[in-house]
Automatic annotation (TrEMBL):
UniProt KW Oxidoreductase keyword: yes
Record key words, sorted: Monooxygenase, Oxidoreductase
Protein name: Antibiotic biosynthesis monooxygenase
Membrane-spanning segments: none
Coiled coil: none
Pfam families assigned to the protein according to its UniProt record, in alphabetical order: ABM
Gene3D superfamilies: 3.30.70.100
Amino acid sequence: MSEQGGPLFLVVTIKPRPDRKAEAEAQLQSMRRHTLEEPGCVYMHLVQPEDDPDNWVMLEMFRSREAWNEHMRQPYNTEGNKILEDLLREPSDLRFFTEK
């Protein structure tokens, strides 16, 4: 699984607007389906914290930072993120992790 630099993990906190949750989820699930087809994506899960129903979390793992960079260049991702701007209360918070 190790490519240059090893695997990259992400925890993305997503804050959908209460009146646009269904649209936000549909957009995120569409982007997720495409991403799962990428060779550099190991997994991507959209989850909801049990103690925080107003926020979602996307748990992601890519084979490398380069694989994630390639993911970020995909049209369904760049266009999808523009669509999400109106569906979220604020920009998503991305946290990056590497294995120790």
